Amino acid sequence: MLVSPVGDDAFGRLLMEETAQLGMRLDGFIQSDQRTAVCNMVLDSAGGLVSGVADMDITAAIISHIRKHQPQLVALDGNLSPDTIKNVVEHCVRHDIKVFFEPTSVIKSTAILPAIAAALDIRSGQAPIAFSSPNTYELAQLFSSAESFDLTSHPAWWSVIDSLALGSAFRADLEQLARKNVSDLDPSKGTLSFLVQQGVAQMAVKLLPFFQHLVIKCGEQGVVVAMRISEPEALGSPWAVKDSQPSQRFIVARGNSKEVVILQHFPPHTIGDVVNVTGAGDSFVGALLANLLQYPDAFHHPTKLNDAMCAAQNAAILSLQSHRAVSPLLSSA
Which sequence ranges are marked TM in the entry (predicted)? Predict the structure, then answer.
């Protein structure tokens, strides 16, 4: 269910009408006397984003609705204010509700950090955010900003990093993975060396105490998933008995606490002509969320994880090829 406040204005009525036409539920919309959230964007001739301006003040009204419905998974993005995000995350952590965070942009990506800082003191050992989907720029921003929020000096961070105990074997596997081509079908896309040279793998691992599953969108270089599976979760997961296979694009490491750390690359799908890039990331996340609702343990099973990443990439491609931010074809995909 999409939960969102809408104003009693022309934009609000348009959103309600088009959502109904897509066959989606409307009971998650909250009528408000504030302005409907609006984002205006300027695109270049290739469909790329040049600049934009947004009005998102209305979003603070969602917390009471989440408390009312008590969902299994709450997805939110960086358009929310840090205070709203903090309140939502605190509620979810206290009530065992998984949180999915979409950073939205480099600037807005750090809006989640105050919530993480507060949540680390609620429940130690468990990542406050179950899922996040940064691109490589947002990942770097999250990593560099974590120190300013004292996150990397928190005892919970040190405890997890020490227990993971990633050593020379992990580094050797990573170096081998980095030599793989991005695509077996198109060698011109280069190798996965960016995992090491740009620090993508290292940053992802060091953020795992805060984000249990990181789905890193790497553009033309595909998708990288970094995740840690706790000891109880690992008992029923095929990952618990798998060994690293860099030739098959994944690394598996086991720490002192019997947690399992996985780093896996998913090659990019063939895109074709790009018309509009503005909704590709949202389409990717939307498809991934739909998969998680159907298979909550998808990340703990290699085959299900592969299916989820394929569906998410296909959804993004449909929107890349559409003149609308989100392709109408997704409603029937």
Answer: none
